Amino acid sequence: MGKWVLSSVTRPVDGASSEDKSWWGVMSLIWLVVVGAFAYGAVFANGLADLASFVGEKLGGFLDRLLGTQQFADLGSQLLRSLALTQASVLFGRMLLAFLAALVLANLAVVVGGWLARRFVLGNARFGFLQAIDFYGRLAVVPGGLLLLAFVMAFFSTSGGIFFAGIAAILWEFSVLFGVLAGENQRKGDTFWLKLLAFVANAVILGVGNGIAGLVLGSAVRGILRQ
What we know:
Layout: H1 2-10, H2 22-67, H3 72-121, H4 129-139, H5 141-154, H6 158-181, H7 191-226
Helix pairs in contact: 2-3, 2-4, 2-5, 2-6, 3-4, 3-7, 5-6
């Protein structure tokens, strides 16, 4: 697997071979889902804690100026940060399964949409479903690594976590677009119109998948609010 991962980093598309490595692609996509959930959860929790710390410091500073003391600014910052971290961690823990399910649905839509667009719209009969898993699994390796960095950085610098998570999201979105547009046209029609049709078909699948994922998250949020 080490050679597959290294090849996926250095030559994600050109380094692919005809040998079936779909299980490695599955593991890569699973890794993207799991590390993505924890990375965005960590960024959310620490971002909320930073905001609470800022508010606590300002409120404490106001009390210090009002009472002529020098202790409430630090106390308010530490207290609200601790409270925010605790509540964010509890919220993330209660939504973790729903968040993982939503990410699985979203990434499954990526694979299915790319496969349908290239196989049936562009007419590439050699692009089977297992090859689609391997293809997108290879493209997921670098974003997965960036999300791991985002998870680690979130505990030291929220802005650093946001930066790496944002780069990972942009790279993955480009990979999704590239997966369709890079497909070889095997039909007699004009390549431009067929690739446009493939892009639209892929967008429809992505819209359905992300819509269902949004319903799963929304249902989890409503369940929490009702308690």
